[in-house]
Specification:
2 domains, 30% helix, 60s Ribosomal Protein L30, Chain: A, six-stranded mixed beta sheet, 13 strands, homodimer, alpha+beta
């Protein structure tokens, strides 16, 4: 049983109540607790030594990553992050300076985005460090962008460039919070997700609720310099396109807008976020399945990105 | 460096913002996010295989405990729990039935208290199971009971009986949510905490903010049947009073009320919660330090309860 199958099993028949707008199945849980005109966003994410980082990474980068992943999920719903609780599970012989480094990286990113760190706990995990962060945010009810909602014909966009994140980007990415809020304010995307498992997987997560598919233009997929360099320099590296589609941990925004807004969006984005590439990579189709088009015709999309829990 | 020293170090200069009413230092973080007349309560708590449970315990009890500990913290502030996210970190060769058992125990307790389980994640922790739960609740602004606020002369109460929780109570305790809300509504305790580290420790957590102390009556400390039995049957067991003061994981309410309300409170409680003992164990003093009184005079309180992270 893999992670997806287990999650599907566990998320059947979860207890609910009338505060729940969206439980599982989107980037964050969405709650209506009576804040006038706003939903509460609620998310947890954990990183584990050996899977998401190794101990030879600077502790500041580890702490930053733990929070940045959660911030990326708030971004994917166009929210504003508010407050976080930090759980650090540590081996007994922990080095207090290492823990302080984790907090330093985390606090710096929190400060940058106006997030309060309101507590948490330290506990013991004898063999490895595990950091779990719980994050709250809010979003205007009429600007909350979900994974579902796209329509056939919508243009598909992705920010940044993809692939090769293991070389450092998985630590250093900037959660696209400002970009997402700008999008929600000016273009109201019909759907949005952050690319954490890889474009090949996450585009399916974006479309599967509405039983839709996509045609992507192979030449339009934005491949990172790192993925291209790796392919040149390492004989065992993935071809750059495959890396862009399946490496994961890109933490870019993948979203859809009505196609008539595509040009206006590209112009507005370039003006507002000149440092962040934005690519129109294809369109939503009414038939399920994702196809990749090049000059020779359609090719099947690799079926999986990075599958956690392997 | 022990857990307390590390936490003191880490909680200096945490990032904050104007939504924060109380960050660290109480049973939950308290946030004002604009819900009319109510605060948001935010808490995380993790349990780790080998520290808080072993794998020979029924998974239903493990899952129940993970949520119940968090509920007890919401109770300690007289709140109403709303929604939880569940993080389960598992060895790779996990048994899906075991995980389903964890969820079954957790879901049953959530349902009992009207809590929605709105998602979470599974991730890999190769050597042991770790469950971290993030819980939200709300509380009326004028009924939120803190750790600080007690005054010299206040009567000190504790619910239930204490000691010997390792024999089963640490799994089976009932979070005192209804009791705490009833208290806040009818008697507005001046301060409250849940007994998780042991009475000897937690009474200090209750009083230290206000630089106060306490005189406790030795004969009034409610000792559990389990602690008494253990002392009789096992030669290496703690004396029952010491067990009641230092075992921890009792998850009872420890609170203070103005002494003139003490009798009325005892009567009202007995009528409303006839199954749950309530004991008046002493009074708040203006001098820091906790003393234990018996017929021969004052004795010093054991200085420590159970210290996590040993």
């Amino acid at each position: 049983m893999n992670e997806l199958e287990l999650i599907q099993l566990l998320t059947k028949n979860l207890p609910t109540n009338n505060s729940v707008v969206t439980g599982t199945g989107d980037d964050c849980a969405v709650l209506d607790l009576g804040i006038p005109d706003r939903f509460l966003l609620f998310k947890t994410d954990a990183i584990v030594e050996g899977t998401h980082f190794t101990r030879d990474a600077a502790p500041e980068r580890i702490g930053r990553k733990a929070l940045a992943r959660n911030l990326s999920d708030i971004a994917a719903m166009a929210g504003q992050p508010t407050a976080a609780l930090v759980t650090i599970a540590l081996p007994r012989g922990f080095d207090p300076e290492f823990v302080q480094g984790i907090y330093a990286g985390l606090n710096a990113l929190a400060t940058q985005h106006g997030v309060a760190i309101v507590g948490g706990e330290t506990t013991t995990n004898p063999e490895r460090i595990l950091i779990s962060i719980a994050l709250l945010g809010t979003v205007a009810k009429d600007r909350c962008i979900r994974r579902h909602g796209s329509r056939p014909g919508d243009a598909i966009f992705v920010s940044g460039t993809l692939g090769g994140s293991i070389d450092g980007w998985h630590f250093d990415f900037e959660p696209r919070l400002a970009e997402a809020r700008w999008l929600a304010e000016h273009f109201t995307p019909t759907s949005m997700i952050d690319v954490s498992d890889g474009l090949a997987s996450d585009i399916r997560h974006l479309l599967e609720h509405d039983h839709l598919g996509a045609e992507l233009l192979k030449s339009a997929i934005p491949i990172s310099r790192t993925a291209k360099l790796k392919a040149k320099e390492e004989s065992s590296a993935k071809p750059p396109l495959l890396a862009a589609l399946t490496d994961g941990e890109d933490f870019e925004l993948l979203f859809t807008v009505p196609s008539k807004l595509a040009v206006k969006l590209l112009d507005g984005w370039k003006e507002t976020f000149p440092q962040v590439p934005l690519a129109c990579i294809g369109k939503v189709t009414d038939k399920p399945g994702v196809k990749l088009r090049d000059k020779d015709g359609y090719k099947p999309m690799p079926t999986h990105g990075y599958v956690h829990f392997a």
